[in-house]
Design brief:
The radius of gyration is 19 Å and the shape is globular. Strands 1-2 form a two-stranded antiparallel ribbon. A two-stranded antiparallel ribbon has the order 3-4. It has a two-stranded antiparallel ribbon with strand order 5-6. The chain starts with a helix and ends with a helix. Helix 2 packs across helix 3 and helix 3 crosses helix 4. The chain has twelve helices and ten strands. It has 254 residues and is an alpha+beta fold. Helices cover 51% and strands 16% of the residues. The chain has two domains: 76 residues, Arc Repressor Mutant, subunit A, CATH 1.10.10; 144 residues, no CATH class.
Length: 254
Amino acid sequence: MSAEQHDVGVSQVAAAIAEPARTKILCSLMDGHARTSTELASIAQVSTSTASAHLARLKELALVRLHVQGRHRYYSLADQQVAQALEALMVIGQNAAPTFTSRTPDRLQFARTCYDHMAGTLAVLLHDRLLETGWLLVTEPQSYRLSASGEAGFQQLGIEVSELSALRRRFACPCLDWSMRRPHLGGALGAALLATALQRRWLTQDLDSRALALTATGRKEFGRRFAIELPAQRLPASGETRQTARRALASPGP
């Protein structure tokens, strides 16, 4: 690709993301869930036909991917690079403000998904603790490796470090958290840690947003295993409580 073609490509992608409805669509897909055009239209507060036009443009620029299952058509982010670019833009957008004041809703700021790994206050505290204890070692500015104690600790959690190292993606890296403006743990190791926390019910995932909720077991285990003091998480409103209870009853036990 020539320099001129590269410049045009960047301009097209920037223009596509700059449209407010498209921004809402892309950010809503950052929890890793695929959604229909009707769902995305509601999220972006546009008509279904307008959402379809936006999605066609995003697909054309390889920002979203279409999944067809029978009569159903779902959209997801094209890949992790798109999610990382959106997170970076969120940070830059906040840096442009004269003073930084997080406007992230409490539930999202405490814990949420960042594509396939954990973000928010909980994730930043955990990232810092992994560095403090020497489990994570910095190998270069944007890359980590595990120490012997770190590898043993993750093995105790049931995470096969050797399998993660063999994947065709970065093993472990800092990912700048847009609500905290400090890094959390990304890469294959970050994704495996989130998957383990969800499997062990330390965290529960909201089905229709990026929010993660810390369970009583999770608060105990994060404190016991990583020695981090967690701030209190905002209690959900009564409607959220009923919704969460319905989901818990519908979910299989551990």
